[in-house]
Amino acid sequence: MRRLPRTRSLKMSHEVANSTSDGADNKVRFRATGFNPKANPVAAWASFVVVIALWQLGSSTGFISELAMPSPVAVAQALWQLIVSGDLWRHLAASLQRLVGGWVMGTVAGLIVGFMVGMFTWARSPGVALVSALFPIPKIALLPLFIIWFGIGEPSKFATIAFGVFFPTVINTFGGVDNVQRNLIRMGQSFDMPMWSVIRKIILPGALPTILSGFRISSSIAIILLIAAEMIGAQYGIGALILAAGNLYQTDQLIAGVVVLSLLGLCVSWLLGRLDRWLLGWR
């Protein structure tokens, strides 16, 4: 074998040593950070401040009509009057009672049906067919029918909210159960785990993220149906407050009612977020 000249071999050794030292100094950046977005509370609150400031600026300069859209100051004054007079608490208590009752009834029924459709062959085909046929129907269109069946009182409002919550809960529960890895279920069955243990330790944890995502959708639908039901026939409730204020052209109270709805939605979202962190802390 032919040997390299001594000078050339020393030069190559020097180049390799330099490249190694340069590589030690210039490390390759670690790129595999994953997809893990972080919440920024400061940016969230800053967005509200910017919107309110622009709204107040438009009202102060006359760009936004006070009749069509009262200023934030006027809305805050109307909201304070509702709080001091106690009217807000009467309306809010009635709405919360209907919202919680209807959402719980629709959610419990949806979870039961969703698990049955996702796990049992005899329930899958009829369940999917009925859900596919009834889910596209606007639930508010059935409110007059519920009033005929249950009367103008509270049962018709509970039925409207529960019916609207039922279908998205069934769909998300069925989808979550159906997406659980089948090899995990077979592994549990191969170890002679009882059916209840398979459901509790394998199927439920695997389907829980999708189910909780469905809760966010169903809670928003419940608030929409609540307001619609209260506008049709209710003496107390946020929807009744908004309807009465609109009929009297009291736009400041109308916007105050909308603000209360927005705060209610934020509170529901916060509670569901806490539930999510509590139940899915293992992730």
From TrEMBL:
Q: Which UniProt keywords apply?
A: Cell membrane, Membrane, Transmembrane, Transmembrane helix, Transport
Bilayer-spanning residue ranges? 39-57, 100-122, 129-152, 158-177, 221-242, 254-273
Q: Which CDD domains match?
A: TM_PBP2 (cd06261)
- Disordered: annotated span: 1-22
Membrane topology, as annotated, equals: Multi-pass membrane protein
Report the principal subcellular site.
Answer: membrane
- Please report the stretch or stretches of sequence annotated as the ABC transmembrane type-1 domain: 92-272
Q: Which domain of life is it from?
A: Bacteria
Q: Where is the composition biased (Basic residues)?
A: 1-11
- The yes or no answer to whether the keyword Transport is present is yes
Q: Where in the cell is it found?
A: Cell membrane
The UniProt family comment states: Belongs to the binding-protein-dependent transport system permease family.
Q: What is this protein called?
A: ABC transporter permease
Q: What organism is listed for this UniProt entry?
A: Thalassospira povalilytica
| Lineage of the organism | Bacteria, Pseudomonadati, Pseudomonadota, Alphaproteobacteria, Rhodospirillales
